[in-house]
Write a structure and sequence with these properties.
about 80 residues, mainly alpha, Non-ribosomal Peptide Synthetase Peptidyl Carrier Protein, Chain A, 4 helices, about 55% helix
Length: about 80
Amino acid sequence: MKLFRAVAPVLDVDPSELSVESSQNTIINWDSLAIINLAMALESEFLISLSAEDITRLRSIREIVNILQMRGVRIE
């Protein structure tokens, strides 16, 4: 999945370790700095602009999917 391939390097995990259930509670490297880096990676990969509110919600893959879908991004 394109999303997993974009998120995995930021979180320093293999894409195969990610699922829609992945979150700050399940990935140790998912800290406040990772959230900022996730925002930049998502904006670059999916050519979108995230609001400050969106960025504060980048705490789980499920929430990232919701945000991307609200921006019109089709999730593979």
